[in-house]
Write a structure and sequence with these properties.
The complex is a heterotrimer of chains A (157), B (147) and C (382).
Chain A (H helix, E strand, L loop, with lengths): L9 E6 L3 H12 L5 E6 L2 H9 L12 E4 L8 H10 L8 E5 L4 H9 L4 E4 L4 H18 L8 H4 L3
Parallel strand pairs in A: 1-2, 1-3, 3-4, 4-5
Chain B lengths: L6 E6 L3 H14 L3 E6 L2 H10 L5 E4 L8 H10 L8 E5 L4 H9 L4 E4 L4 H18 L14
Parallel strand pairs in B: 1-2, 1-3, 3-4, 4-5
Chain C lengths: L1 E5 L3 H12 L7 E5 L2 H10 L4 E5 L8 H11 L4 E5 L4 H9 L4 E4 L11 H61 L5 H31 L6 E3 L1 H11 L1 H6 L3 E5 L5 E3 L1 H17 L7 E10 L2 E8 L31 H11 L3 E6 L5 E8 L7 H8 L3
Parallel strand pairs in C: 1-2, 1-3, 3-4, 4-5, 7-9
Antiparallel strand pairs in C: 6-8, 9-10, 10-12, 11-12
Helix pairs in contact in C: 5-6, 6-10, 7-9, 9-10
The chains are: A alpha/beta (157), B alpha/beta (147), C alpha/beta (382).
């Protein structure tokens, strides 16, 4: 398993405004094989605040992986994606776009903005859970995620 | 992604033993994909820019002539190869290699397992994820004469 | 010996000068300044062997005086003079790098060592510390080179290892039927040997990463580390029907988190892995807390280890059991030892065959500030 040397849980940030989807994601990941912590924010502004550790996120850990919905209130997911990948501090963090849109245009544009992956959110509950578990199998078990050098500060003393 | 069409997986790997191991792993996985191999960075770039666009790239970091990271950089700079998924696969797990790969635009980084069965498992999870779960970009207008 | 006395009170200065003249006929030169600024300026121009520093000066007060003197003239031994009733401040002065401290009220008393001897010892001690620091630096250099070498080699070994393992498997798969039993057996051994080789290489890599001096020591909550290890290993623990628990309170230590995780991860893991009992049990607790050191214990009810192996068990790749019975290449304890020692601590074992094993790990206690000797050595300017 790629993360076993980490010695700490994998920090996942879910940017999603649908509370039901967040809950499903949380459940699917909690049953997973790899120790992980899920953080969720409901819009693009919060997502960026989390990354920049502003305000209530002052002690937030740097995410090892981001699951990003494109259709978000306040700030569109596409903009958030662009901003993350343009910032040298966060550009290396893998971003998986997890969204309902099947439009080829959205797929192309997301990859063009350097999303690491694009996954269409199934409407069916069981399929949704399967998809999240596939994401876990690949991104948490097989893949080597870029190490977060700043996590020492993020961790509570 | 049309699963019935054979997917083209582009492998950039200089170690002939690794090429053979990878070939066999794909055969074992019965994915039904076509493996295209480049043996050094220069060849990789030439094939990618002149030939047909593959569906997926497996890139080793340590390539002769032009390094894997350089190949990655050029892929990302090439407008015709936008969104081409590139998974860096390397024996190395050095932090610099991992971070730089992601920073230069690799979609994922996989440390090649030493044991074949584990490698096979990793390939299966990877291909199942990328070809069945994820949406791959399907840019319009392939090269002339393509299917 | 050239002594610089930094003292604004003339009375005190005269007294000190008299004491210095006592007993030994050995000549000495005494320079005197009345303020920190003047002293620093003089040190810039003239050579001295030792500084006698009053902490209460017109242009600087208390330990500030010492830290400023150390900044400018850290290569010189400094003996601090403090007012009476100031034992606590004297101790702090030692931590900040002074060689000694004298309480002015006690000067001249019969119990006190002659002032000259104090000076002399201060100079000697300073030189020892210099040598120590140089030796340490050289050791660290060599150690770093060794780590980097081990890392590179282990890393490079992986590639041919991969080929070995894969092709011996392929041979078996493709030509196994054509071979006789012996042929298949030989191939199988090849494949298994490469798997063992691979594990060893990975342990070497882990070991090389751990040996390096920790960059930053911090406060580590050992209880939390152990709890997280138990949580992460829940599956294996339940699978072995094991019972792992912490007994009592566990103090925080001054260490770095990855090493503490490696230490307890390995010890706890070994506790239930090498355990044939119906219900393997592992207990973690505090054995002793004295003089700035914490000793933890990790006790299991496993098969125990004969005393003649108690040292060998910590060597790299030592295995006491037949390969077929238990997994693990045996580098785990070498990792624990290396990690503990890198933190300034140590690890040892108490065990008898059939009576379980207790591993003891000693680590520096977190006391709200860094350890005395390391601070002293590192605080000095070369």
């Amino acid at each position: 398993m790629a993360q076993e040397q980490l010695g700490r849980p994998v920090e996942i940030l879910v940017v999603e405004d649908n509370a039901g989807d967040v809950r499903l994601t949380r459940e699917a990941l909690a049953d997973g094989k790899v120790w992980n912590n899920l953080h969720d924010v409901a819009d693009g502004v919060e997502a960026l605040a989390f990354l920049h550790r502003k305000g209530r996120y002052a002690r937030a850990p740097r995410p090892d992986l981001i699951l990003l919905d494109l259709n978000l209130p306040k700030r569109d997911g596409r903009e958030v994606l662009a901003e993350i990948k343009a910032d040298a501090r966060f550009a290396a963090i893998p971003v998986v776009v997890l969204t309902t849109s099947r439009a080829e245009e959205d797929v192309l544009r997301s990859y063009g903005l350097h999303a690491n992956c694009y996954v269409v959110k199934p409407i069916d509950l069981d399929q949704f859970i399967n998809v999240v578990q596939s994401i876990e199998s690949f991104w948490l078990c097989i893949v080597k995620l870029p190490p977060a050098m700043t996590n020492l500060q993020g961790r509570a003393a | 992604m049309n699963k019935f069409r054979r997917a083209t997986i582009f492998l950039a790997e200089d170690n002939p033993d690794d090429v053979e191991i990878t070939r066999r792993a794909f055969k074992r996985s019965r994915l039904g994909c076509e493996l295209v191999v480049a043996r050094d960075g220069e060849e990789a770039l030439r094939m990618l820019t002149e030939g047909e666009r593959p569906d997926f790239v497996l890139l080793d970091i340590n390539l002769p002539k032009v390094t894997g990271l350089e190949v990655l950089t050029r892929i990302r700079a090439d407008g015709r190869l936008t969104g081409l998924p590139v998974v860096v696969m390397s024996i190395s797990d050095r932090e610099e290699d991992v971070v730089r790969s992601y920073a230069l635009g690799a979609n994922s980084y996989i440390q090649k397992p030493v044991v074949f069965e584990e490698f096979l498992e990793a390939l299966k999870v990877m291909t199942s994820y990328w070809f069945e779960v994820a949406r791959l970009p399907r840019p319009s207008g392939r090269r002339a004469g393509s299917r | 010996m050239r002594v610089l006395l930094v003292e604004d009170s003339s009375g005190d200065a005269r007294l000190i000068e008299e004491m210095l003249r006592e007993a030994q006929p050995e000549p000495f030169e005494l320079g005197r300044e009345e303020s920190l600024a003047a002293a620093l300026a003089r040190l810039g121009d003239e050579q001295f062997d030792v500084v006698l520093l009053d902490l209460g000066l017109p242009d600087s007060q208390g330990l500030d005086t010492l830290s400023r003197m150390r900044e400018e003239a850290g290569h010189l031994p400094i003996v601090v003079l403090t007012g009476f009733d100031d034992e606590e401040r004297g101790l702090q002065a030692l931590q900040m790098g002074a060689q000694d401290y004298l309480i002015k009220g006690e000067l001249g008393g019969p119990a006190l060592r002659p002032l000259r001897r104090v000076m002399r010892y201060a100079i000697e001690r300073q030189q020892s510390e210099e040598m120590l620091r140089e030796t340490l630096a050289e050791l660290e250099n060599r150690s770093a080179e060794m780590e980097s070498f081990t890392y590179s080699v282990s890393h490079d070994l992986k590639e041919p290892l991969r080929t070995l393992e894969a092709f011996s498997r392929f041979l078996l798969e493709d030509y196994g039927e054509v071979l006789d039993d012996q042929g298949r057996d030989y191939l199988d051994r090849l494949a298994r040997a490469s798997a063992r080789l691979k594990d060893m290489v990975e342990e070497l890599l882990t070991l090389s990463r751990l040996g390096r001096r920790p960059h930053e020591l911090e406060r580590v909550n050992v209880r939390r580390v152990v709890e997280e290890i138990v949580a992460a290993n829940r599956f294996s623990i339940d699978e072995s029907n094991a019972d792992v628990a912490i007994e009592g309170a566990l103090p925080d230590v001054l260490a770095d988190l990855p090493r503490v995780e490696q230490i307890f991860g390995n010890l706890v893991g070994n506790g239930f892995k090498f355990n044939r009992s119906e219900r393997p049990s592992v207990r973690i607790g505090l054995a002793e807390l004295t003089g700035g050191w914490v000793t933890f214990y990790v006790r299991d009810n496993g098969i125990g280890i004969a005393p003649e192996y108690h040292e060998r068990i910590f060597f790299l790749f030592q295995r006491l059991h037949l390969r077929e019975e238990y997994e693990g290449t045996g580098a785990g304890l070498a990792i624990v030892k290396r990690a503990a020692e890198a933190l300034g601590g140590c690890v040892w074992l108490e065990s008898e065959p059939g009576a379980g094993s207790t591993f003891f790990v000693r680590l520096p206690l977190w006391e709200g500030r860094g350890r005395l000797s390391r601070q002293r050595l590192e605080g000095r300017k070369a």
